[in-house]
Structure formats: C-alpha cells, structure tokens
Amino acid sequence: MKLFTQLALVTAIATSGSAFAMQTMNDSDLSATTGQDGITILIAPPKLTGAQQTSLGVTQTNGILIGAAVLHDKDGIVDATNTAGTSGGAIIIGDAKQANSANTAGTQLGIFGSTPISVAIDASGGGAAGTVSGSSPVLNVKLGLPADLLIRTGDISVDGSNRGAIAVGAAGATAANAAVGGTTGNAVKVLNSMDIALGGATMNIQLGHTPQGAFINAAGTITGGLSIANLSVHDATYDGVSLGGDLGVSRLTVTDTGSANLTLNAGITVTKDVGTLWGGAASAGGLVITTAGNASDIMLQNVTLGSANSTLGDLQLINVQSAGTHIAIQGH
User: Fold this and answer.
1) Domain residue ranges in the chain
2) For residue 97, what are the CA distances in angstroms to 64, 76, 102, 188?
3) What angle do CA 172, 176, 177 make, to 5 degrees?
4) Quick one: how far is CA 189 from the chain centroid?
5) 46, 113, 210, 223 - which has most CB atoms within 10 Å?
6) Residue span of the signal peptide, if any (predicted)?
7) With a threshold of 0.90, does the pTM exceed it?
8) Distance from C-alpha of 75 to C-alpha of 86, rounded to nearest angstrom
9) Adjacent-strand bridge partners of 291
C-alpha cells in the first residue's frame, strides 16, 4: 500500500510539472515570477543606541543626524526702502554653533525611522504593456517611507554670511574650519526645532516624460494625520530690549475632514515660468507644489503668546477646502 501511495505522489508531481511547462509566459509574467526587471534599493539609516534614543527623545530605532545646513543669501536685502542693511546673510537650519563656534548651541536636524526607506526603479518606453512601442520613455522612481518616519527640522537661525572664510577644496567646508568661517558668529534663533511625523507615505518620481502629470507625486495615508510638534516662532527683541518671546503651538495636526487619518495627495513640478500657473505675467522659474485630495481639519493645540503661561487655548479649523492650491518656491 505504501508503494502505491508513493507512485501516486510521484505521478501527481510529474503531471503538475508537465502542465506548467507547457504554459507560455510573456515578459510581464516572467518578470513577476523571477523578479528580473527593475531595481530595488533599501536604505537603512544607522542604528541608534538606547542612550541615543533617550537623549534625542525618539522611539525610532534608526536615524541620521545633520549638524547644520547653511543657506547663504549673498546679496542680502536688496529692497532700497529697507534700511536694515544690504550685507550678505545666512539662514542656519540646525545647530548654529556648527556654523560658527561663537554661536549658541542648538538642536540638530534629524531623520528617524525603524524600517528602511525603499527605492524601486523602473523604466518604460511609454507604450502598451507587453509591446515594444512607445515614444514617451520614462524613468520611474518610487520611494516608500517608514511608517514611523519622524523629521526633526532643527532650530532655524539667522546670521551674517562669512562663506568666503571657509576653505573649499580638498578639505571642504567641514566642522574643523567652522570656527573661522561660514557665518559671522552673531546668530539669532527665529524658529525653534519642530518634529514632523510623516510616516507611511510614498513619493513617486518620474524623469523624462511624466505620465502621472507631475515630476513628483506624493501619495499615501498618514495614520493619525500629519503632526507637527513644538511649533514656535521666536521674537528675539521688543523695542530694542532682548526679551525672547515666542508664538507657540504645542502640536498642529492635519487630518481628512471627519477622519483620524490624512490622505496625502500632491504633485511637485519644476517649471521655467511659475507665472503660467495663475495666468500672470512671465516670471522666473521655481519649484511648484500643487495640492489635491480631500478637505481637511486642522487642530492647533495649546496656542501661546509670549510665554508658556499665556495660553489662548486650542484653535480648530474645520472642512478646509484647499485642493488646487499652488505653492511656488523661487529664488530672487
């Protein structure tokens, strides 16, 4: 009996294999079976120790820290009616002390998450599936973000620009020469560091032709909504006296109207003339963000003026319909 059972099993396996061997497979089926087409890249930031998690105040297991990013406005304020001065200035994002050792230390930038960032790269000729036709080739790059992604903006300060003092060459603009260049060492903080929770979203980038209608398409569902913690604008002086008051919001949350989550839907393009967006006169180029999707609810918790004990309460904006809004970012 055991012999008959073994023969039946062998016969079933052989018959199954023969049946599959007789089926034809096109390129799409073969790709799905073997995974031979396209490129997938997984990016895992460095592992954080328990001590680092505690000191940074994060629960994510991985993260990248950036000391500071400095944007130099080389010609300063060009408006002739403004008497504040026209010397070059610098916007410091992160720890101002790393732009010049004379500055007060601040919060660094950080990107944190517990799973890798995925990058899926594919190319198409723009024709129908399974054909070699098409005259609109496109390179498609899809980014998948960790579900617990946290972006820490770092403090934002303004300082005088002293970029000429940084030796740019073999050594580069490193922390070793920050003490003698980068900024003038008179940094004033204007915005405290914020934590932005933006997990579970995807960003699809198309180069060449853009059948999705935009250079970058941001999509996905953010569980719990878009959250920005510790939003605080700092006013360093009042009537020449250094008082250091803040306009603060402990947490700003954006969700779909009537929902606990936020549906992310926005297109990002780079254009040579942003004036065409609203039918205006010819303008310089820039990066344009166009919003789409559902109406939203916005909650600002614990709004304060001047100090933490001057509390206005919570501010709620309901059913905000902003789909179709264009946000253009330009240099001048």
Assistant:
1) 213-331
2) 19, 21, 6, 11
3) 65
4) 22
5) 113
6) 1-21
7) no
8) 7
9) 266
Alpha-carbon 207 to chain mean position: 19
Residues 177 and 167: their CA atoms lie apart, in Å, by 8
Q: How many CA atoms lie within 13 A of 33 on its CB side?
A: 8
What pLDDT does residue 127 have?
A: 72
Using alpha carbons, list the distances in angstroms from residue 144 to 113, 196, 197, 215, 257: 12, 17, 15, 16, 25
Q: 122 with 37: CB under 8 angstroms?
A: yes
